[in-house]
Amino acid sequence: MALSDTKLRTLKAGDKTFSESDGGGLFVEVLPGGAKVWRMRYRIGGLGAKQEKITLGNYPTYSLAEARSWRDDCKILAGRGLSPMALRRGDAIPEDAAPAVKELAQAFIREWCLKTREKVRIKEEAAREADTVEAFARRWYAEIVEPANSNPRNVKRVLDKDVIPAIGAKQIADVTVTDILVITDRIKNRGADQMALQTRNVLKRLFAYAIAREKTQFNPAAAIEAKFIASAKSRDVALSSEEVGKLLRAIYQSSMKRTHKLALHLLILCMVRKS
Asked: Which end of the chain has fewer CB atoms surrounding its CB within 10 Å, N or C?
């Protein structure tokens, strides 16, 4: 039974590789990892000849219509005694081939060998661009940080100011512990130890998400213990006895209502916490 785009889209990977035929030797092979690969079997010289198998590429990079056009061109070549697999491999066109056959072979190389390589190259470059630190950080910020935080601007500032300028062009899987330390050390040299620690923590969360999305297997920020960057400091301030005295005198010398002065004095005496 011939394939359809609907059937191709709904094919689910299993524990083992399996294939679905479109007829005429063309079939799509579904790998356990989910890839769907166009392949074709054919014979040169009739039923008794050795069977060859050639690969076009993945679906949907190559559509069903393109795969069928490729199959037809392969069958024409095989019918003229030429091996599409050999041409794809880069073998020379036989010198003794008829001019019309040579022309068919050259057209096949242009359409299905050179263009295929270029298509694969473009796809690989696009995948690499999507896996740079900058591209992945933007994705993480949009998908994870913004929806989960009422005020995500601090994270964005860390990314834009210190992370992306330093390692934005690197592949997420290529970032090392040294790269993280260079960033945090540069921030510490500005006298901003706490910001260096915050940046390390942001990077730790970013790479945890990258691991979850199977972009890398290592979290270089988590490999650096926080104590080696800076010690977290509490925002709470404890007033000395002298400072408490100054505060009370300032309260009673102010122009606020007496009831407010007494209320503030009571708060200080009871040591009421902000929480």
From this structure: C
